[in-house]
From TrEMBL:
Keyword annotations: ATP synthesis, CF(0), Hydrogen ion transport, Ion transport, Membrane, Mitochondrion, Transport
GO molecular function: proton transmembrane transporter activity
Protein's cellular compartments: Mitochondrion membrane
Family, per entry: Belongs to the ATPase g subunit family.
Record protein name field: (wild Malaysian banana) hypothetical protein
Taxonomy, superkingdom: Eukaryota
InterPro entries with a match to the protein in the record: ATP_synth_F0_gsu_mt (IPR006808)
Lineage per the UniProt record: Eukaryota, Viridiplantae, Streptophyta, Embryophyta, Tracheophyta
Record organism: Musa acuminata subsp. malaccensis (Wild banana)
GO biological process, one term: proton motive force-driven ATP synthesis
Main localisation: mitochondrion
GO cellular component entries: mitochondrial membrane; proton-transporting ATP synthase complex
């Protein structure tokens, strides 16, 4: 156990030395490569302005999303009306998708209970 701790400590030292040597270079390269996304001057006011722009831009996209939702729902209604024309492959894919959603829901419940299967701590 002590040898593993020593190995872990030496790897941490190596990593911190690497970051100390190359971290600022990486930071500068990253900023230089993505400078088209940086708004000047980089102040708190600019950040707050951008935050408001993002919020209201997302808010303005709601009508388009609303329309897309109803188009998707109309497509599902059309498929449901013509369900006798569906192929076995389409039905099996839909069933597998529903099963996957159910499985993820069950896994989410198990994780939410702290990885217990009965909900009670033994």
């Amino acid at each position: 156990m002590a040898s593993k701790l020593h190995q872990l400590r030496s790897k941490a030292v190596q990593a911190s030395e690497f970051i100390a040597k190359h971290g600022s270079t990486y930071y500068k390269e990253l900023l230089e490569k993505n400078k088209q996304y940086i708004v000047q001057p980089p102040t708190i006011e600019t950040c707050q302005d951008l935050s408001k722009k993002l919020f209201y831009t997302r808010l303005s996209s709601i009508p388009g999303r609303y329309e897309s939702f109803w188009k998707e729902l109309d497509g599902v209604k059309h498929i449901w009306r013509n369900r006798q024309d569906l192929k076995v492959e389409d039905v099996s894919i839909a069933a597998l998708f529903g099963l996957e959603l159910y499985a993820w829901s069950c896994v989410g419940e198990i994780v939410g209970r702290g990885f217990t299967f009965t909900g009670y701590y033994v």
